[in-house]
Amino acid sequence: MSAQAHRTNGLSRSSPTGFERNLHPLGSIFSKNLDNPPKHAFSRAFSFLFFPFFFSLLKMNERSVASKYLMAHYMKTFRIKTHRLNQNYSEPHFFILNKGLNSGKPLNEPCPNCFVCIINNENDKDFMYWLCFGLWKSKSFHYYLKGSVIPFITIGDMKKHLRDNECIASKHPQLFHQSIHHLKLLEENEGKLKLSLKMIDTAKKAIFYKLMNKTGAV
């Protein structure tokens, strides 16, 4: 009866149906045509997925190279060493106080307790001087002070702190130069105010002396 039913339908058990014809030989439910996908479609899919990824890596590499180039271009070369009495320097330089609560203060003239910062050119010297000035004004060097009686900063800490902040400032040169410009203006105005206060103090003394002279007290 089973054989008759199959004969009635025109199919035998050995005759594959349409679904069976597409079955994987090992019985997988995936179609046979997935074993050998068309090469053209595969190439298109590979290109679609790979090339955007490749170009993104290329752009990242270009940005990395550009970033390294800019950092190399902007970063300053400087040396810091302990200043020796009566020692002269031919390269552009400035001095940095290394003892007391004012440690880190940049100086144009040496003092008994100071480092010397030597730079390749005047522009970089100006950059480093005002960077050091800004760090000193913000009391940034206080973190590195050592000693209980007379605080001081070591040459290693000075080098590291200046280098770390020089790297940060070099990444934002325009912003840094704007800040330096404002610092210079404030320093100039502070100098004028100090001079005015000194002149006022001198005038006060002169007025008082003149008064005492007229009254015969002097």
Describe the structure concisely for a colleague.
The chain is α+β, with helices and mostly antiparallel strands and 218 residues long. It has helices spanning 2-9, 18-21, 39-74, 122-137, 155-171, 173-214, and strands spanning 78-82, 93-97, 106-107, 114-119. The chain contains six helices and four strands, in the order αααββββααα.
**What is the chain-wise order of helices and strands?**
HHHEEEEHHH
Radius of gyration: 40 Å
- How many helices? 6
Q: What structural category characterises the helix and strand content?
A: alpha+beta
What fraction strand? 5-15%
- Name the poorly predicted regions: 1-35, 45-51, 63-73
Please summarize the sheet with the most strands. Answer: 4 strands, antiparallel
The helix fraction, in percent, is 55-70%
Largest beta sheet: strand ordering? 1-4-2-3
Distance between the termini: 149 Å
Quaternary structure annotation? single chain
Residue-averaged pLDDT: 75
Shape: elongated
Number of strands: 4
